[in-house]
Amino acid sequence: MTDAPQDHPQTQGGCQCGAIRFTITAGPGKAGLCHCRMCQRATGNAFAPLYEVPAARVFWEGAAPTEWASSNISQRGFCPTCGTPLYLRTDDTFEFMAGCLSPDFPFRPQDQGGMEARKGWLDALPSLPAHTTRPELLAVVVSHQSKEN
């Protein structure tokens, strides 16, 4: 496995409510997983699936993200309306949360970092039963999320 950036197509993305939208132009990027404690807390999850691109390839539409300095070297961006975590930013790089990217984006992690904080229970995932969402639940849920990507 290589950790060199790979070429990816242009993609779009945004937050749950649709107030924040962005476009990432085609070019090199790197998909990875971060298990560090900061990413766990920032996402409220076991790890953060991140797509790293140069800031010069990111174009914003709609509302501006709100940022919080999660460390002395980075900012975390999120939607001030719905709270969706969007990215980790350094001076010249954005690392977007994979769930914010268009569903057809070819996100294929190239590496994993922060392994010192990786949750051991992740090892059991391949052996757990898997199922789709129950149709009777889908029939009554009315989503308030944006219909865009």
Task: Characterize the structure shown.
- With about 150 residues, the protein is mainly beta.
- The protein has one domain: Alpha-Beta Complex (glutathione-dependent formaldehyde- activating enzyme (gfa)).
- Helices cover about 5% and strands about 35% of the residues.
- It is built from two helices and eleven strands; from the N terminus they run E-E-E-E-H-E-E-E-E-E-E-E-H.
- The strands form two sheets. Strands 1, 4, 5, 7, 8, 9, 10 and 11 form an eight-stranded mixed beta sheet that branches.
- Strand 7 and strand 8 form a beta hairpin.
- The longest helix has 7 residues.
- The model has no long low-confidence stretch (mean pLDDT about 95).
Largest sheet: 8 strands, mixed
Q: Report low-confidence residues grouped into runs of 5 or more.
A: none
Tell me, briefly, the overall form. globular
The total number of structural domains is 1
Quantity of strands, as a count: 11
Compute the CA-based radius of gyration: 16 Å
CATH superfamily: glutathione-dependent formaldehyde- activating enzyme (gfa)
The sequence of SSEs as H and E is EEEEHEEEEEEEH
Into which percentage range does the β-strand content fall?
25-35%
Oligomer: single chain
Average of per-residue pLDDT values = 94
The termini sit apart by 29 Å
The proportion of residues forming helix, as a percent range, comes to under 10%
CATH domain class name:
Alpha Beta
Find the structural class using helix and strand composition: mainly beta
CATH topology: glutathione-dependent formaldehyde- activating enzyme (gfa)
Instruction: Please give the CATH architecture.
Output: Alpha-Beta Complex
Number of DSSP helical runs = 2
